[in-house]
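Problem: given the chain below (379 residues), write out its structure.
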Amino acid sequence: MEEKKKDTLLQFVKANKSFSDALMKDKYPDANPYINFELVFIYLNANMELLREYDVETYEFISEMFNNSNYYIEGNFVYIDNLAYSIDSFINLVHKLEGCKHKAIKIPQQLFVESKNNGREIPKRECKVYSFNDYKRFTAYEMSERDLIFQYTNRVDKATKPYIEQVAYNFRRFISFVVTNYFNGQQKKLNNKELLIISSYINLFPLFSYGKDLVEFPYGMFPIPINEIGVAKITFDDQEVLELNRKYKRVQEKVSQLTFQEKFVRDNGYADSQSLSKIRRKIDALENRAMELLYELYETTHYEHIFNPTFLKNVWQSFKGNTIDINTLFHNPVLKIFAIQKGVTNFYCAMHLDVLTKLIDNDIILEVLNSEQKLLLDN
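Solution.
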């Protein structure tokens, strides 16, 4: 099973490379069952709530399958627990779910029942008439304000939630539009930039979904152009970084304690100049140590073997969370990419589309996977 999964992983990366290479040459990619399966994944990820409403059992089956990657692909079939499922059956599921979106919405009858006011006079309210253009302008301005608040504070609250929800809604619609038109063979409806975003998404799939427990990927070898990416917030879980953070916080706590002590004795006249100088020297030494730790923390978080996996994992979480804001006003679109967990923004960055497409080097991954395949054959 593991050998077949590793071969499936290899085929995913090969297919992604061919897909990306075609787009870089401004060509429409050839059909491929592995690409089709990845597109099914990103469609279902964007429409999981709809899937749950459509069929709970299918929802649980799909969730288990993608969470545990307990499958492999041969030809046009996916094998799960020795049972074969055609990739076309997954594509049909996509079409069925998309069809559900276009069904007429049934409004409950009680919404049309007039409410009784029990003889009470309805208070008159002052109203103001806006034109439709005014309404659009006010709505856009309000959302742009929420966007700026979130961009500069990364808060998740009443002011920013409408923006976050709108981003997720728009990105889900974008995914559904691209995937369904791709499966329907409607190439003319899809442009190169839209497919490049999809390509960047599926390039992450072998690393952080299917192959996450199969192979140790060399993230540090990826030439990520950090200087071309605006990283406003990133949360590291690397032990080396966490230890440096703990040391910095301990130093800051000691500085706060000594600063309070210095102020107390100064205000109450409990110490002479010699005692105050001694406290001040300790504070200065600790502040110098805090600066050293900050510099060490900055250097450590920029080492490729620490920054790259953390950064890429957060980009993957952003795609999975559908929190990708695509600004198409530019010739080279700008994407705001952020990840939120339990109401807290753990990651926020912005980059141009051409930078996003350079994050994953499939040639490096193929070199590693081919080396592993050779070791398997030698053994």
